[in-house]
Amino acid sequence: MGLKSYPRVYFELVFIGFTLVMGMGLSSAFLSILATELDPSGILASFVLSVWFLSRIFMELPSGIISDRIGRSRLLIMGLAIGGCGALLCALSNSIYILILGRGIWGLGTALYFMNNTAMILDLFDTSIRGRALGTFQGIEFMGSFIGAPIGAFMADRLENPAIPSYNIVFYVATGLIFCAFLMAFLSRDIRQIGVLKSSGPRVSVREVLLALTNWGVAIVCVNSFFRMLIMQGINSTVFPLYLNREVELSVELIGIVVGARTAGHIMATVVAGYLSDKIGRKPIVIAGMLIEGVSLYVYTVVSSFEFFILAGLIAGFGEGMVFVCLVVLLSEVVASRIRGGAIGLYRTFMDIGGFAGPVLFMIAFDNFGSTSPFYFAAAILMLNVLLLTTVKIHPSSRED
Prior knowledge:
The protein is mostly helical. The chain has one domain (8-391): MFS general substrate transporter like domains (Growth Hormone, Chain: A), CATH 1.20.1250. Helix content is 80%, strand content 0%. The protein has 17 helices and no strands.
């Protein structure tokens, strides 16, 4: 099944995701630097990253269950609108407190969007091609981040306006992109109908979804989701830019290029890994991705030149992308399709807890145990995840569509 045979709504979702993620990516290279500038003490700086996930922890599971009952599209459109409001508040911020509030609202909106976005793609495709469909989708989607990170860093580094700080200008641009995504989703007849077509069926209870955790495979996938986001937010979004800025003494503009290289690796991996996972299985791809990322994290601590950081970032992003696309597909194949939305909400709840804890925990390690210690801790966590995944047994009979 080639791209030409995919339904039109798939490409609409791709374009909306690309626009949204590009807006999100504009601030990725400088956000932790901005937070430490607004809060030199560092007490609140990590919460600028963490609050993005704190606001989502209690939203993912209910929204997943609700989407199984009323459809995906309403919550997806609502999430885009809320996310745009949060980005606008970040653009208007002049203190660490307003920035934290804006990030929290922005994160809440993205929780609704990404949960329903993923469920829609999994609903649309059979398990035999689900990996490549989701991988291609996420690869194109995260091209937005690849483009946005260096553009946002360039704007923050070069734009000068006595009335509006350059960081705030970047957030205004992000707001515009997110509201464009909202309008595209709101005006799409196909997106409004897809939830009704794919989400009808018996009512799903919270208890039924939580009982899925008694399945060893589901539990390990959720635990891996927690650790994956713990590292992504604690290392990639928080410690890594600070490490490059303080220890390697790279400018924000150069950091944006390194972040873009990591995103490029992520994009390439989602497409390749999605296709390969349809051929050889999800678990081998996830394990290989974790091993690649773990080695790359160690390499960060032994290289010093800008060019080597670009290469290491590219390889780390490739490993990260392999895990990103295949882990949630693996989840979709060990739960009944009628509770898929709730299961994805559960999976994303674990992910959000990791995203909330990651910046705080790894900043503590960065400040108290040395600038390289977070990378060693993260590599060790990935090796532990690999061991856990080897215990998971996936049987064909567990796949239900």
